[in-house]
Amino acid sequence: MNSVGLLFCFILTRVLPFESPHQMATGGLMTTSGAVAYDALGQRLRARHYGSFGNLTVAVDELMLYQQEVMYEINWSAQTCRKLPLDTYFIPMQVPEDASLLGQTILGSSSSWGMGLLTNTWVGQFPNNDSYLLTFTEIGCLPVTLTNYSPKIGWTTISTYNWVIGMSNPEDFFPPAFCYDAKMEKSLFAKNLCPVFDHNHN
C-alpha cells in the first residue's frame, strides 16, 4: 500500500506568543477566494471574497471601521451601500496569550536554504468549548492557516497567502463615493475577521 509522507520537522525550543505586523494585505482568504486589507494601528479591515455555492454566486465587499463603529456592505454591481453599526471591538490578528504551542513544522523541505517555511502551530479552547488551531510563520508572525471548531457549526478553516507588509492601498479603508449618502441601519450580528481571534464569542 502506497502512502504519501509528510515531512514534519519539530524543533525543541521555547517559542512565545507574538503579534502580527500592524499593517498588511493578502490575496486569499477563507474557503472562497478573495483579498483582505488589515490595519491594526487604525483598527480597520477590508474584506472582499467571492465564491459559488450551488447555483448561487456570492460577492461580498465589507469595510469595517472599528474606531468609528461603522461597517459598510458594498455592492459594486448595483452601486449601492449598506451602512451598519459595528457593535464589537477590534481583535488584533495575533496568537492568544493562553494558546499552547503544538509544535514547529517546516512547510516544504529543510534540505536546502529557501525550500521550506518554518511555522508555529498553536492550539487552544474558548470557554464555550469552541476550539482553535492557528499556524503562523516563525519569522514575521504571518497567519498561514486559521481553523476553528464549534459544536454548533462544525469546522471553519481560513488559509491565507501573498501577504504584503504595510499599507499597499490606503484607499481600501475608505468607502466609495456612492456610500456617502447611506443611512445607518440596524445590525443583528457582530462582525470580526475570524472567530478564532475572539475570546468572547458565543
From TrEMBL:
<dbReference type="GO" id="GO:0005576">
    <property type="term" value="C:extracellular region"/>
</dbReference>
<feature type="signal peptide">
    <location>
        <begin position="1"/>
        <end position="17"/>
    </location>
</feature>
<dbReference type="GO" id="GO:0005509">
    <property type="term" value="F:calcium ion binding"/>
</dbReference>
<keyword id="KW-0732">Signal</keyword>
<dbReference type="GO" id="GO:0007160">
    <property type="term" value="P:cell-matrix adhesion"/>
</dbReference>
<dbReference type="GO" id="GO:0005764">
    <property type="term" value="C:lysosome"/>
</dbReference>
<dbReference type="InterPro" id="IPR001299">
    <property type="entry name" value="Ependymin"/>
</dbReference>
<comment type="similarity">
    <text>Belongs to the ependymin family.</text>
</comment>
<dbReference type="Pfam" id="PF00811">
    <property type="entry name" value="Ependymin"/>
</dbReference>
<protein>
    <recommendedName>
        <fullName>Ependymin</fullName>
    </recommendedName>
</protein>
